[in-house]
Structure prediction request, 491 residues.
Amino acid sequence: MSESEVIFCCCLLPSILAVLLFFILMRRKQKRFLNLPPGDMGWPFVGETISYLKPYSATTLGEFMEQHISRYGKIYKSNLFGERTIVSADAGLNRFILQNEGRLFECSYPRSIGGILGKWSMLVLVGDMHRDMRSISLNFLSHSRLKTHLVREVENHTLLVLNSWQPNSVFSAQDEAKKFTFNLMAKHIMSLDPGVPETEQLKKEYITFMKGVVSPPLNFPGTPYRKALQSRSTILKFIKRKMDERTVEMKGEEKYGNPEDDDEDLLGWALKYSNLSTEQILDLILSLLFAGHETSSVSIALAIYFLPGCPNALLQLREEHTEIARAKKEKGETELNWEDYKKMEFTQCVISETLRLGNVVRFLHRKALRDVKYRGYDIPCGWKVLPVIAAVHLDPTLFDHPQHFNPWRWQETKQNANGGLSSSSSFMPFGGGTRLCAGSELAKLEMAVFIHHLVLNYHWDLAEKDQAYAFPFVDFPKGLPIRIRHRTASI
Prediction:
């Protein structure tokens, strides 16, 4: 290098450094003037995560949320799950977040969730791949399929569980609800019959798997998370074996059939009508087994828990379902159909109130894709955003006496809807926007049919004191032990 070149470089270098320093200072200055919501970032690294996840009654916000809302308001900043976070207990911001999915915000669950559910799980996927996976689920759970095949399947599996109950016996209502939803999903997804050894073995592995999903992500020997990863591997091998068997069966058949075929299970449907890879199908089936079993079973257990505390609701339910059963008897019919389901209007109010007060899904994980302003606050690009659905459902400014189980509030909401801001527009038990739960209609159908046969055929009461806790998933520590008695329906 010549002397002139050396002099040129020496002169240029300070200029480059000056420009870089200028941009760094300007960026810091901009950051200083960000109007972040108030809040406390907590301890280094762990932030406030431990306090946020401390167990609390599912029908409350918990001490952490109550104190933070009282101190900072419905929108505040924190450090949760190892990330800088904007927490929202505000109905308007929650709707704004969900309605701008893929534009301003995207799904952003902790890595541990993706590690155990799989990278192709619908829960963690974003963008086009999530849209394609969700489309497959929606096509399989089409309205026509719900009206025909699924009503029969849901009723058959309901009766299979309820008819096994012995009079004056005590058992876990939560376990019975889980048995019902697991058997239904296993049949629906892979045509597995309830009670047979392979179904029971799969159920055993799945229970271990679920314990790991809700446990701290500590991948050490003996921890629930490590055991769950091992069960995940066993479950995927089981599904892969079923895929191989189905592929062999399909070789001798015509590749393309009718996508509307009622008897097709999800595994067969995905193999015939999708372009998904083997790994993608495995994760899809595992994630749907998780989503379809866990949330529905807890919702049914919550209804069983709430109803005895509201005798008038239980009485009105029995009147509604007795009338449906009486009309069917006069027609000489025995099985429920879609028209019967649509007559369960008060039942839908009970379902909505159960989901509002019980809050099976407490909060969602999102991330800001760009800098966002909302009501004067700045939400920086890259920050985690936590829309807390439960906080909105228990907000006294939106729901009168929110801790009170009141199914009739949904009749009033329907009558008073006027297109403005209402409690119904803030009700989001299945999420919203482009990530609205694909199985929401099936979940409500399961609850309605189970309630139909439960209230017609049984009285029940709590055999031992228990209540639902959030940790962070909703669960009954004692399994909700109930004592049942047969009742003779006057039809």
Remarks:
- The first strand starts at residue 56 and ends at 57.
- The chain has 18 helices and 13 strands.
- The chain has one domain: 31-486.
- Confidence is low (pLDDT under 50) at residues 25-30.
